[in-house]
Each structure stands twice: as C-alpha cells, then as structure tokens.
Design a protein that fits this description.
Helices cover about 40% and strands about 10% of the residues. It has about 550 residues and is an alpha+beta fold. The longest helix has 23 residues.
C-alpha cells in the first residue's frame, strides 16, 4: 500500500483526499490524457508509484467553470505512453493513482456488468459467484394480482430495479436493450468475457440478460398485454432481500410496458438464435403477440400508483416513442413493411430520436431502423443519421464549455445526472458508428467524468479507484454489514434539485450544481443505483474497449 491509498468504510467518506482530479481507472497508452486542477498552477508533473517524476509540463488554462464554480486549469499528458501506474502532481498536491497501458477499462467493464448478477431476484447468490456479498433466496412466493386478489401468479426472477426490491417492465426492458446492443455492436469485447456467473453455453452478457428476459416473459398476458410492474405495496426497509417477505402484487397493464416488451424481445430473438434456438423462437412469438396487441389497442394506457402503493410508478405522458421502438424492432426482425410504415408514421410525434431512457425510447427505435437488414426509406435513414450527427455536435459544444469535460449544461444536473452523462457518451459512440463522425475522445470524456474527473474527485462507480462512492442507496449494500460496498454500481450523482430531505440537509444552499452530491446511503436522490444507469455504462465501456483493440 502506498501512502496515498485510503481505506473504504461505511462511514461517510467526506471530501476527497486528492486535490487533482483525473480518471482513476486510467488511459489507453495512445489516447488523450488529461487531469483537471481546480486551483491556479503553472506546472505539473507525472510521478510513478515511487514518487519519481517521469513527465512534466505547463498547465493549460480553462478558466471559470459555471457548473462546478471552479476556476480550473488542466494537465495534458497525452504524450506519456509508457505503461505503468502514476499520479499527477501540481502545486504540491496529488491525484489518485491511475494506469496507462492496455485494457485499462476491462476491470471497470467487468464490475459494471457483474453488478446485474448482484441484483438477481428469485434466487440466492452463492459465495462461489458473489463472494462476501452472498445472500439467501429472495422473493420466491407467488404474487397477488392487484385487480383480483384471488389470482396468484409465479412471476419470480429478473433483476431488482434499483435501491429497492421492485421490478418494473419498462425499466428492465431498457436496461436489457442497452446490454443487447452492446453485445451486437461490440461482439469482440463481450464474446469471450467472463464475469463469474453460474450459467454457461453463451456469452456471459447474454446469459445475464436472459435472466431478465425470462422474467419479462412472465409479465406478458395471453392476449399480448403486459403487466406494468411487480412490487410490494411499500418500499421495504433496509433489510437483506431474503428478509423482505411482504406480499408482492402484479399491477395492471400499460401500453408502454407492452411496447417495450415487444421491442426488446424482437431485438433479442436473432441474438439468441445461435445459442438457444428454442428461446429465440419464444422471444419472437412474444414480440409478435405484444405487437399485435398494440395494433389492436392504439390508445395510450398509462400507469399510476393505486392508493396505498408508494413504490416506483414509472408513468409517462404518452407512449409514442415506445411504440416507435416496438414497430422499428419488429420491422428489423421480420422485414414486414407494415411495421416499418407504423414506425415511420410515429416519427411525426415530435419525440427525441436520440434518447435512450425509459420515458423516451426514440434513440432505440432509430437504432433498430438504421441497423435493420432490410430495404429502408432513404429519406428516413438520412433524417435519423442527421439527428445523431446534430445531437453529437450539440453535445460536443457542451463538453468543450465544461471544465471537467461533461457534455452537460448547468441545468442538466438533476436526479440521475450520471445516467445522462453516460447516455450522452452513447450518443457520441453511435454517431461514430452510424454516421462516421469522430467523437471517440468526447465519448471518453464522459467516462473520465464518471471515474473521477469531476470537482469532487470521486469515482461514481462503487469499488473503482482509490476514492469511490461507497454508500449507495441500495438495501443489500447497506444491510450486509460489509464495509466495502458491492462493486460495480453507478450511483445517481449530483442533483441540484435536492429531491429528498437528506439531500437538503447534506448540501448547503447555493452549492454549484456539479457539487450537489454526497456519498450517503440515506439519500435516494443523490446515491441510488438502478439497472438503467448501469446499462449505458456497460455500453460506453464496451465501445471504448472496442476502440482500444
């Protein structure tokens, strides 16, 4: 242990022990490399583990950064290509340790992907696969249908959605889609990647997603409609999952749940066919069933929590982008021109065509259409590619105006801001893949921000780096009695809205948006985790690993 390493603890971590901020995982040898220095300084050095200076230079001046409130300069050490472990030193102050070399993001990617295993529901986590974070079987009892309490259903399985133990169709479908597209676009990264999960016979990323898809299929009704969510009436206390034994309820259908299930099953079917033809056919049948239901039921069916239920609602204002995604994926799967026509008709609904969240799925629909192996409308192809190019250009401007490189405006730091940073990294990557642009460095900047190039000097992925988030709002991470958090989880990040009482108590009034964060398990609006915050991290890491191969 060198003298700058710190011990993680469940005690509140406080401010960073480091004063120079950089990506705590490191940099590929041939890539751009930068650290941010939030104080006036003319020179910097790069030192190895022994404190020997191996590189030095003059700092570059950025100036005042509005989102952080810092006046910053930066250390550019892109010319340092020798493999090793280093720190940046400036003004007598240091950064966290980082690496320069090959495959520097492999460990981060493994952790971010393995995090989904730690959220598995309906089973126990064995020590062989979970290590110290093992636990017993959870949530295996039959659930009660909300609309008719005499009906009981086996809907076990899937991933716990977030810091709570609920499971939600739209959130699960989006997270699964991010992972499936990561595999589809970067197979060389994921084909042989092993993260120590029980299954075999297919790439681990596909085995993990199959665990969620198996649950999603249980949420489909025989007519093709899809139940919206599966939760208890109230959020569980901070107990281990096997100790949450309250009654589970299956809540009414929504049109966005049906659309998202149709979409993700259509996407998944050809991906699984080489490994499990029977499962692939089951997915295709499910996709067709829900797509037909959507056509028979063109009206929007929202979901709101019934009286007495306080778990996540995942409601929306319409389902146009969900239907667009569903019909685009069905066109990609079948080549049926009717699905293409239905998808293209929905693009007049004015939803964003480069968005990859659970409320707006237009980016997934655009991706499905552009990658479809069938004859397509040239004008639509041009329109969709143009949207990716335009959005990436806009985001480049935001990144260039940010002293820490995040493609975020001052107004963008709200609940789940780290998700938005990562999704914007996805847009940079997809603009390059689909349109031939050159945004790799901008995509990398978003990861650098998440891994420590931020004004708090913290890695927002648990267990990654010398100073990382360690108190996620995640029930098993709090209840397990283990000092070190379960690794690999992206926490929500800065939220200037201070959306819960704990956040209001922890963050002083007037704090700049990018600093409105505390590593505190009490605050769900600052430090919760979710499956659809981890999934864009896996996609972005897959892209950057592919670029380095």
């Amino acid at each position: 242990m060198d003298r700058y390493e710190i011990k993680r603890s469940k005690e509140r971590t406080g401010s960073s022990p480091f004063s120079v901020f950089t990506d705590q995982a490191g940099f590929p040898a041939g890539n751009a490399k930068r650290a941010v220095i939030p104080f006036d300084c003319e020179y910097f050095e790069i030192t190895d583990r022994n404190g020997t200076t191996v590189f030095s230079g003059e700092t570059g001046q950025f100036g005042f950064d509005e989102a952080s409130g810092d006046t910053v300069c930066f250390a550019d050490f892109g010319k340092l290509t020798k493999k090793g472990e280093y720190r940046v030193k400036a003004g007598g102050k240091f950064s966290a340790l980082f690496k320069i070399g090959d495959n520097v993001y492999d460990g981060v990617l493994d952790s971010a992907l393995k995090a989904f295993y730690f959220l598995r529901c309906g089973c126990g986590l064995d020590e062989k696969f979970a290590g110290a974070w093992k636990h017993g079987k959870c949530h295996t009892a039959e659930a009660v249908l909300w609309e008719d309490n005499s009906v009981r259903l086996d809907v076990s399985g899937g991933w716990h959605d977030a810091g709570d133990y609920g499971r939600y169709v739209t959130a699960g479908a989006i997270a699964a889609a991010h992972l499936l597209y990561a595999y589809r676009l970067f197979p060389e990264v994921f084909r042989d990647r092993r993260v120590n999960i029980p299954e075999s016979g297919m790439p681990d990323i596909l085995a993990e997603v199959k665990y969620e898809l198996d649950w999603l299929l249980k949420m489909q009704k025989p007519d093709g409609s899809v139940y919206h969510k599966l939760t208890t009436l109230l959020h569980a206390p901070f107990v281990m999952p096997e100790h949450d034994t309250e009654t589970l309820y299956v809540f009414p259908v929504s049109s966005m749940a049906a659309a998202d299930l149709a979409a993700v099953c259509a996407l998944a079917s050809p991906i699984y066919r080489p490994f499990d033809p029977a499962f692939a056919e089951k997915l295709r049948t499910a996709a067709e069933l829900s797509a037909e239901w959507l056509i028979r039921n063109p009206g929007f069916i929202d979901f709101t929590n019934p009286e007495g239920c306080n778990t996540g609602a995942y409601g929306q204002w319409d389902d146009a982008s969900n239907r667009f995604w569903a019909f685009a994926e069905m066109f990609a799967l079948t080549g049926d021109g009717d699905y293409a026509d239905r998808a293209l008709a929905l693009t007049n609904k004015h939803f964003p065509l480069t968005e990859f969240g659970y409320t707006e799925t237009g980016g997934l629909g655009a991706l499905a259409y552009l990658l479809a192996p069938h004859e397509k409308d040239d004008a639509t192809v041009g329109k969709l590619k143009g949207e990716f190019t335009r959005t990436a250009g806009y985001l480049r401007g935001l990144s260039d105006k940010c002293g820490y490189g995040a493609a975020m405006s001052v107004r963008d730091f709200w609940w789940g801001s780290n998700m938005n940073v990562l999704k914007r990294g996805m847009i940079f990557a997809l603009s390059d893949i689909l349109c031939g642009t050159d945004n790799m460095e901008y995509a990398a900047r978003q990861l650098h921000y998440i891994l420590g190039t931020n004004p708090l000097g913290i890695s927002y992925i648990t267990g990654i780096g010398e100073y990382s988030a360690n108190q996620p709002h995640l029930r098993p991470a709090y209840a397990d009695g283990i000092d070190a958090s379960i690794p690999g989880f992206v926490v929500g990040g800065p939220n200037s809205g201070l959306s819960d009482q704990f956040a209001k108590e922890l963050i002083p009034p007037g704090t700049p948006p990018m600093k409105c964060y505390a590593d505190a398990a009490e605050s769900y609006s600052l430090n919760e985790i979710t499956i659809y915050w981890n999934s864009p991290a896996v996609f972005l890491l897959g892209y950057l690993c592919a670029c380095g191969r």
